[in-house]
Design a protein that fits this description.
By secondary structure, this protein is an alpha+beta fold. It folds into 3 domains: 100 residues, OB fold (Dihydrolipoamide Acetyltransferase, E2P) (Beta Barrel); 277 residues, Bira Bifunctional Protein, Domain 2 (BirA Bifunctional Protein, domain 2, 2-Layer Sandwich); 34 residues, no CATH class. The protein contains 14 helices and 16 strands. α5 packs across α8, α5 crosses α14 and α7 packs across α9. It binds one RNA strand through β2, β3, β4, α4 and β11.
Length: 464
RNA sequence: UCCUCGAUAGCUCAACGGUAGAGCAACCGGCUGUUAACCGGUAGGUUGCAGGUUCGAAUCCUGCUCGGGGAGCCA
């Protein structure tokens, strides 16, 4: 008797035909009749379940098997039979069904449709559903694809620090990391909390971005990327924001904004093609039950050229569109979500890079353009999700960078090491950040970020 | 944080001022190939919490808590 995984059976069913096999998994459903019944068993190795046929005249404990409930863990032994005429390609004629772990009748995952909201409340069990099984397998595959893409192109993976003392970056509200007694912190003479007595001897936070550290390594390895957790303590309550998420941040030296965009486009297409090729069952499921036509959408994008438009061009285009927007379009103001959606969904109907934003609405480290008014920034907008990538060419000129920091009220002494990168062998360089979860959302069609993170952390929510 | 909608059986919903119901799940039974199985039956409720109006509140009003959608911030 050979112990087999459903994935093996799917890949090589002919080899197992009419052989005795043993599978182990969890019952999704049990349909019993007078003298026979059917179990749908999922063993976690494949999206599909395997159908187990059990018969009264074969099993001495038929009545007991007929009562097994959804959620129970079982070992099944029997003969693998090919069933070319049936809905499923093969099934097991059971000779033995052993209950490994019972599941009482209050098991929350019923063989019926559940809302995503309900399943979030049972996040420890939701991976056993079709939807979340598919989502989290795609998440795993996508992470692998990210590493493969960069490693194959000679990028070095940098583990940027998760705890940081860079509080000058301004990418968002930060979570403080401390070992001080919250009730009774040490105070300075002036009555303020004395962080000098904290664990690190100074204020420390969870990272909001590994970019600054990635820049340091890009100026040593030329091509690097980070891929790790990121934390934002923003009070944002949307389907696209979480307090803990993962970000991919490549950084390339001797490169400008156009090199940066070429890399971003190549990466997005690689990731899409990888998932289409390696998660066919999952993508078929998303296509049918989550977002109709998602596979065609992705295939089309992987084969198309991404659009490009400057911020100034986008503002003109939006103004001349005749479209009524809730918020007016005005040069110097950031594009609203409705503007971005109009551009990527109505005007271009595909991913679009928007470049060269006014310097006032972008970060201090973005390279100042020759017009003195805009910076070499780029956002990649995609239909349905909105901004999925944000990046820029970095300011490599010491004087300009220091001036920009002053404009943003950042003390250059706080980022002395970042300035050193310009002082010693600084070169033009560029990079971007891809929200890992937003990429998953875009590829699967799942519209809430809480449903693509195993155990999501959001404002007022840290269960599990 | 703002706008908006909502919270009723385990789940999804109905009842909209007058005895709280259905489908699915569960449980019991039927059915010789089911696959969202089907058919019959049983059980299941402090209507989110706290107040108020009323002869009478799931229903109307106020506050709170939690959730969905949208916005801001961003990835």
């Amino acid at each position: 008797m050979e112990k087999v995984l459903i994935r093996q059976l799917v890949k090589d069913m002919a080899r197992y035909a009419d052989r005795e096999v043993e599978v182990q998994g969890w019952i999704r459903s049990n349909r019993d009749q007078k003298s026979f019944g059917f179990l749908a068993v999922n063993d976690g190795t494949h999206f599909n379940t395997i159908q187990v046929v059990y018969e009264k005249e074969v099993l001495s404990d038929f009545e007991r098997v007929a009562k097994l409930r959804a959620g129970s863990a079982v070992t099944v032994r029997g003969r693998l039979v090919l069933t070319p005429k049936a809905k499923q390609p093969f099934e097991i004629k059971a000779t033995e069904v052993i209950l490994e772990g019972d599941s009482p009748e209050d098991y929350p995952i019923q063989p019926k449709r559940h809302t995503r909201e309900f399943l979030r409340e049972v996040a420890h069990l939701r991976a056993r559903t079709n939807l979340f099984n598919a989502v989290f397998r795609v998440r795993s595959l996508l992470g692998y694809a990210v590493h493969t893409f960069f490693q194959e192109r000679g990028f070095v993976n940098v583990h940027a620090p998760i705890i940081t003392a860079n509080d000058a970056e301004g990418a968002g509200e930060m979570f403080r990391v401390t070992t001080l007694d919250a009730k009774n912190p040490p105070l300075t003479g002036g009555g303020a909390v004395d962080f000098g007595q904290d664990f690190f001897g100074r204020r420390a936070n969870l990272t909001v971005s590994g970019q600054l550290e990635a820049e340091a390594f890009a100026l040593a390895f030329r091509k690097v990327y980070t891929f790790g957790p990121t934390f934002r303590a923003e009070n944002s309550n949307t389907a696209r924001h979480a307090a803990e998420f993962w970000m991919i941040e490549p950084e390339i030296a001797f490169a400008d904004l156009w090199d940066n965009m070429r890399l971003a486009e190549e990466m997005m297409k690689y990731l899409i093609n990888y998932i289409l090729a390696n998660a066919p069952e999952e993508m078929a499921f998303f296509d049918e039950f989550v977002e109709k036509g998602v596979r065609d959408k992705l295939a089309k994008i992987a084969g198309s050229k991404f659009a490009h438009i400057t911020y100034t061009g986008a503002v003109e285009l939006l103004k001349e569109s005749g479209e009524k927007f809730e918020y007016p379009v005005e040069w110097g103001k950031d594009l609203q979500t409705e503007h971005e959606r109009y551009l990527t969904e109505k005007v271009f109907d595909k991913p679009v890079f928007v470049t060269d934003y006014p310097k006032e609405i972008k970060a201090f480290y973005m390279r100042l353009n020759d017009d003195g008014k805009t910076v070499a920034a780029m956002d990649l907008l995609v239909p349905g999700v909105g901004e999925i990538i944000g990046g820029s060419q970095r300011e490599e000129r010491m004087e300009v960078l220091v001036q920009r920091m002053r404009e943003f009220h950042i003390d250059p002494r706080d980022l002395w090491w970042y300035l050193d990168l310009r002082k010693y062998g600084g070169v033009k360089h560029a990079g971007f950040g891809l929200g890992f979860e937003r990429a998953i959302m875009y590829i699967t069609g799942v519209s809430n970020i809480r449903d693509v993170i195993p155990f999501p952390r959001t404002v007022n929510y840290c269960e599990f």
